[in-house]
Amino acid sequence: MARMQTFFPSVDRSGSEFAAQLDAIAATELREDEQLRGQSLAGMREWIRQNGRLRRCRTDERFLLRFLRVKKFSVPRACEMLERYLTMRQTYPRWFARLDPEDLDLAAVLDACCMLPIGRDPASGRIVIFGVVRNFDAQKYNSDTMIRLNMLVAEALLDEEPNQIAGFTHIFDNGGMTMAHVTCWTLDNLAGYLRSVINCVPVRLRENHFVSVPTFAAQISKYCLSFASEKLRSRIHCHTTVQELRERVSLELLPQEYGGKGPSLKVLNDRFREYLASKRTMLLELDEMDIDLRDPREAAVHEDSSGLAGDVVADGAVGSFRKLSID
Fold first, then answer.
1. 72/75 Cα distance (integer angstroms)
2. Cα 15-19-24 angle, rounded to 5 deg
3. Least crowded by CB within 10 Å, which of 169, 229, 258, 286?
4. HSE-up of residue 38 (Cα within 13 Å, Cβ side)
5. What is residue 193's DSSP assignment?
6. What gap in Å lies between CA 115 and CA 113, rounded to an integer?
7. How many CB atoms lie within 10 A of CB 282?
8. Pair 206, 169: CB distance under 8 Å
9. In 3-state terms, what secondary structure has residue 285?
10. Using CA atoms, how far apart are residues 76 and 68, in angstroms rounded to an integer?
11. What is the pLDDT of residues 124-150, one digit of tens each?
12. 212, 175 contact by CB (below 8 A)
C-alpha cells in the first residue's frame, strides 16, 4: 500500500525499500490491510457521529489512524483512547493549548536542542528523538514547558504515517543535569503526566535510552517506573556512558557531538524548525476540537471491525480518566 512521504527519510534505504518496510510492519505488528483499515475508519467515524459528547472532532484518515494503529485496529480501544485524548486536552490546557512553534518559550527550548528528531533508524524504520536534558533551563522554565515541548514534538511527528506505523525511539542524555531539573517538576505535574499523557497520546514508543543518569535522580526514576507496565519497563535501556550508547545506536544516526556520523544538533534543529513551520496550521487547529465533559449521555455501542459488539467506550474512557485526575 502506498505511504505518504516523510520529512525524515530512512538512512541508507530507498523510498521503495522504506515503503516495503512500513508495509511489512503494518501487516505483522498492526494487522493492517486495506480492508481492515477501511472498515475501522468507517466504524470510528460512525462512533464519533453518534457520540453526544464529541462536539467537534477531526475525522480525516491521517488523524484517526493514529489511534487505530496504536491499538492495532481494535475500534473500541481506539475510540476509548480518542476520548481520553480529547478529555486530556481540555483538562490540561496549559500543556495542550496553542502548541505554536513560534511561541517564544517553545522556540527558546527548541533552539536549545532540548528535544528534536535526529533521523530514522534503517533497521527498525523508527523516528529517533534525541533530548539533551542539561540544555533545558530549569531556572527559567518549569515542567509545564517541558511537557508542552514533548506534546509539540509528538503532535507534529504523529501527523506522518511512517511515525504512526514504525513508532518512536527516544534517547535522553542526562549528563550534566542538576537537581533543578528534578525539582522543577511538581508532584501534580508528574502524576498527571505519567498517569494521563502516557495513556492518552497515541504514540508507539518502542525504545527509551537514558545516558549518564546521575545518582541523585535514581529515586525519581524509580517513582516514574512504578507507573509503567512491564512491557514499557522492558523497553527502557540505561547507559553509563556515551560510549555505551554508541554500541547500541547506529553511528549513522548519532549527531556529531556524540561521535556519530550525523549532522550537528544545530543543523538538525534548523531542519526540524522548518518541518514545524510546515505543521503550524495543523498544530493550532487541534484546539478547535471540543468534547463536552459535563454531558452525562452514554456513547453509542458500535460494532468492532471483527463483527463483535463493541464496549460502551465513552463510559469506560471518562470513568478511567476521572480516577486518574483525582488520585
1. 9
2. 150
3. 229
4. 4
5. I
6. 5
7. 15
8. yes
9. helix
10. 9
11. 999 999 999 999 999 999 899 999 999
12. yes
